[in-house]
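Bumping with the actual sequence this time:
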Amino acid sequence: MVDFISEVQEELRKDDYNRWLKKYGPYLAALIVLIIAGTAFFQWREYRAEQVSETTSYDYIEIVDSIGDDKAGAVASFSALSQNAPDGYAGISLLRAAELELENGNKEKAVAFFDDAATKFSKKRHIQLAQLKAGYILAGLGKFDEVKSRIEPLTQKDEPYQFLARELMAYAAQETSDLKTARMHLSYIETSPGAPETIVRRAKQNLLLLNSSPSASETEKTEPEITPPAVNGEDIESAPTETEDNE
């Protein structure tokens, strides 16, 4: 009797399972297919990205090796490479194009390339590196209002190049007769823990000049000339770059 009841229960369980499988089986099979297809797709994308990155690397090195005296041709090649390259290589290519334009004396074009490069990177320190380099060029061109509007966001606490950005802002402020703002940025650098030593030293020297000068209300002719920041970005490599975005 017990065996009979067990057999009946087993048959009922089989019937329940068959009904469940008949009802939900197609959905389960579709889900399994989607998981397998999705996994295969992502693996293919990773493989494809590696292939593209490797090919782009070879193309980039080839352009670098062929620069020679044909800088205009190299600029065109870097610009073309950036159109289809992965973001990192696209940004680096545009940085090199900007530097070549700067060597050729085409400062406005260099700024445009640095601006384009900033849109191709994902990490904040790379984005702001391009923005800061553009700011140095604009300062050299005397476009101080544009420097201030572009560089001010880079001066915020914990930004990767905040001290270099503040130094550049101080220079732009002094050149536009805003000595109060110049002192503010230089004092911040001087008193901030973690500021690079070379930048602190320049800030102290420039503060001495500003603090020994006549008041900001006097004529521009009596204002001191503070030391311009490193317009070629000499201190960028030594600047703190711990802060990155999470993209």
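The tokens above came from a reply further down the thread. The mean pLDDT is 79.
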